[in-house]
Amino acid sequence: MTHKLETIVSWCKRRGIVYPGSDIYGGLANSWDYGPYGSLLRKNIYDQWWKFFVQEQPNIMGIDGAILMNPKVWEASGHVGGFYDPLIDDKKTGERFRADKIIEDHIEAKRKDHSEDEILAHIKKQYGVDNVVPDSWELTTQHQYIIEENIKNPNSKKDADWTDVRTFSLMLSTKLGVIEDDSAKVWMRPETAQAMFVNFKNVIDTTRARLPFGLAQIGKAFRNEITPGNFLFRTREFEQMEIQMFLRAEDAAHWYKKFEKMSWEFWTQRVGLNKDNLRNRDHASDELAHYASQARDFEYQYPWGWGELQGIHDRGDFDVSAHQEMSGKDMRYSDPYTGERFIPHVVELSMWLSRTVVTTLLDAYDEETYTDQNEREQTRVVARFNKNIAPIKYAILPLIKKDEKQVAIAHDIYKKLAENWMCEYDDGWAIGKRYRRQDEIGTPFCITVDHQTLDDGTVTIRHRDSMEQKRVSQDALASFMQ
Questions:
Q1: 470, exposed or middle or buried, with CB in 10 Å at 0-12, 13-18, 19+?
Q2: Nearest in space to 224 (alpha carbons), one of 20, 83, 354
Q3: Residue 228 banded pLDDT, cuts 50, 70, 90
Q4: Could you tell me if residue 373 is inside a domain?
């Protein structure tokens, strides 16, 4: 069941998962803070990614590059000269929108009544382009479509007085040093990939790395998005999880395919996303980034439609060659067996950590109706997180807060389990309300210490998804957890 995004946002704030940024000051547009449980969810996804793609792979290593880099890095990469969004203004309201995005929304709405072939045939006949990817169209074509299709203001739903479509730089900048002139200007990185390219030679010279090998990084990036929105999906500050695989050109097809297979395993098994909410989509030739010879997106079925979650790109030797030319440094790889020297080929795996959090929230949230022991119909909110990423793994609950023996046993269990798992101790409210709260934050198991515990040393283990309960000996807890 798909729930409204407003429901997810409200649940996240109510249960300490994600808060609006700068909330007490009225917020900052599309700025979000991870709360106690959201920060754990994010960390667990981070850790699962690192374990799967780095720790368990014999030829992929991690780095942690700086956010601020020499401005020439971004000249060489092509960002300074060509990292733009197409913008259009409604002169009636003064509002500004991404032209390609409002066209995408218009095309998506048409899919309810028209087939993909019908939509494409109309666009090709009327506008002279043979794809339904607006960000690959010329600015004049985007403007023509918006005018001729009579697209209304997305916010007011009223007729707009549109300006021409023009470009807007996505790069965010800051100043270094005490003199704030253009010489002090540096860019906030718009992606994490470049740190891996500029450190390629350092890694070769200081480790035993031999082709093929990968460099992995998880880190923050910044883009001056003009129309951020949809919760954590599109923000100006976000996190990426990326691998740049350096290899010979003839090995590119193998790694392109291998990254696809590994990605499906990561999404469906390590993170536990619903397969029905995932799909692959190859980029059309006129949709490709300037550095890519082929690209494939993994997309997720969000409440507003299919959207990007991950990309796999064949980047060729563009990046390393560009940095060699700009820096004047020899970035060639020297084969230790043949003595051959060449610029390596690169296949990239790029995932969005922030968007991954959104998908896990959407997949996990459920409103379940059930019949209680008194034959009354009840509704509970339950977050069915995969156990790998659940913020809290075990909640330890003494049945009676005033019973010192129960409390002592519960604290002892907490201390032992917390050495290996993230646990939570809770002795407030009635036990039923505590169960409901743990359901909402997605805790897979609740361990309850009660009167019978004092008699025979057993505790009650309650399963989040089924609400079934069973008695387990305290001594058997560790093996049960495994």
A1: exposed
A2: 83
A3: low
A4: no
Tokens 């003595």 identify what position? 339
Name which of 136-150, 217-231, 446-460 the model is least confident about: 217-231
On whether residue 323 sits in a domain, the answer given is: yes
CATH code of 459's domain: 3.40.50.800
Q: 90-132 pLDDT, tens per residue?
A: 999 988 898 998 999 999 899 889 998 999 999 999 999 988 8
Domain edge (last residue) among 342, 362, 382 = 362
- Identify whether residues 63 and 41 lie together within a single domain: yes
Q: Is residue 449 part of a domain?
A: yes
Dump pLDDT digits (tens) for 196-208.
Answer: 999 999 999 999 8
Q: Is residue 384 part of a domain?
A: no
Q: What is the pLDDT of residues 293-325, one digit of tens each?
A: 889 999 999 998 889 999 999 999 999 999 999
* Pair 147, 239 in one domain: no
**255 and 402 part of one domain:** no
CA atoms within 13 A on the CB side of 425: 15
Tally the domains of the chain: 3
Tens digit of each residue's pLDDT (9 = 90 or more) over 50-86: 999 999 999 999 999 999 999 999 999 988 877 888 9
Q: Which of 345, 362, 379 delimits the end of a domain?
A: 362
Q: Which domain holds residue 417?
A: 392-481
- Listed range (83-87, 252-256, 310-314, 470-474) with the worst mean pLDDT: 83-87
Do 291 and 352 lie in a common domain?
Answer: yes
Pair 191, 155 in one domain: no
